[in-house]
Amino acid sequence: MSWGTELWDQFDNLEKHTQWGIEFVEKYNKFVKERSEIEVNYAKQIRNLSKKYQPKKNSREEEESKYTFCRAFFTTLNELNDYAGQHEVIAENLTSQIISELTRYLQELKAERKSHFHDGRKAQQYIESSWKQLESCKRRFERDCKEADRAQQYFEKMDADINVTKADVEKARQQAQMRHQMATDSKNEYSSYLQKFNQEQNDHYYTIIPNIFQKLQDMEEKRIERIGVCMKTFAEVDRQVLPIVGKCLDGMTTAAESIEPKTDSKQVVEAYKSGFEPPGDVEFEDYSQAMKRTVSENSLSNSKEGKEKSSSKSKPKLWPFIKKNKLSLKLITLNSHVRSLIEGSGPEDFSHLPPEQRRKKLQGKIDDLNKDIHKEMDQRDALTKMKDVYVKNPQMGDPASVDPRLAEIGQNIEKLQAEVQKFEGWLAEVEEKMPSKSDSNRRSGFYEAQSNTAVSNNCAQDRESPDGSYTEEQNSETQVKAIINPNTIPSTMPDFDEEFDDDDTLPTIGTCKALYPFEGHNEGTIAVAEGELLYVIEEDKGDGWTRVRRNEEEEGYVPTSYIEVNLEPNAKDS
């Protein structure tokens, strides 16, 4: 159905309806804006929540990250952060695909509607003006007809009167003829204008107004169609991020499924195992004879061996379940809390730690030193390559300028190797003194539950009063001194697989573009052409060389000054 034929007389109502349609578009645009703001605020709150619970540097949370349930929680936080990013994407797409488009379309719609109704009003004004002119011609024709009739009647009256002179009769006759002619002219003018008006009126109601109303109808249908497209886009914007949101949720699920209670419980053993042996059996003390109790070889009071006892009586060994040892148990607990505050304050060989913790510390130190040696050797190899390039291409630099740095690196490597030998000696010493695995397995059931408390009690056993009685004050003093050198947990556990990591393919950390051609004749280098795009797998470590890869089989070093490097954001952060 056409507005031009069905609604030819509803100009005012169509004007109100189209204005309401524009207001509806504005209302829907406002609705999408508010939805976008909600998505932005929600994403911001989710990011803040994720950031709030992220592990902080140099804190206990970093130590907890070695547990699978902690790592799963941190993975959940990272996935939640990515999840928040998808809500930001929703807000951005709503703004770019709906809000911006509707704002621009509204301006065009208002301008088009204004133009159509301006043409309609102009047509209405024209037909109304024509109608007024027709009415004017009609009234003039009517007036002239009446005047001609009166002039005719006056002439006939004068002609019938015998007292009127012939001149007056002639004058009346001429006046009647003139009025009759005026009426005839008015009639012709009225008839002509009437035909013109009817034609204009026919054009107005059957051509001009239908065309204008048809344009308005097309405009309105396009507006409705545009609203439908926006509503569909509104749903599609959410549907587009569902796959990534699903991956985030899958990542959370995978992280939760990766939790291994057995592994975490073993990690507790690795973190707190002291390496000491549980105390031996308590020997029977026969007070009917002058006997001395023989101290168990496995006791932690070995430091007192060989010393003469001031009393012939010896105090029985204190055990964790004895009421007097409550203070010792509290101090042991306090020891675990202050461990992180005092860590690293002991001697260089970690002799203040229990055997197992000392072994782990020494092994971690050796691994760190080996990493430093590897870095120094990488720098030495890179400088050697640079020196070879300078020798073959003197215009690139002076080969002698590299020698001081090579000498310095050689000295650093020697110092680090000496440090490694020193720590390896201490490690060998600790491993010789540690009990065999068979002995520790035999006692593991009792040891895992009582070892730390037994250590505390054994140390406290040797503090006796002159009369042979045990005092809690002396026990407190002993435990406080023991806390000064706590059983610290190593910040990094030794990784025995690190020596095999070099065989793995290095990850890509960015891309680069060759600014100049490089032939790469020397071993370890790779030839590149000007403008060639490559993958960066190792940054310049200050030696002027960057490690790049062309494909899985071709990689090597190129001069950093020959390329333009673009690192990935996560590579820069790391």
Automatic annotation (TrEMBL):
Biased composition (Basic and acidic residues): 432-442
GO BP, one annotated term: signal transduction
Source species, domain of life: Eukaryota
Main location: membrane
UniProt keyword annotation of DNA repair present: no
Coiled-coil residue spans: 359-386
Location of this chain's protein in the cell: Cell membrane; Cytoplasm, Cell cortex; Cytoplasm, Cytoskeleton
Entry keyword set: Cell membrane, Coiled coil, Cytoplasm, Cytoskeleton, Endocytosis, Lipid-binding, Membrane, SH3 domain
One Pfam entry name: HR1_TOCA
GO cellular component, one term: cell cortex
Domain SH3: 507-568
Compositional bias of kind Polar residues: 449-460
Residue ranges constituting the F-BAR domain according to the UniProt record: 1-264
Region Disordered, residue ranges: 293-315, 432-476
Annotated signal peptide: none
Residue ranges of domain REM-1 in the record: 352-429
Keyword Magnesium annotated: no
GO molecular function: lipid binding
Similarity field: Belongs to the FNBP1 family.
Record-given protein name: Formin binding protein 1b
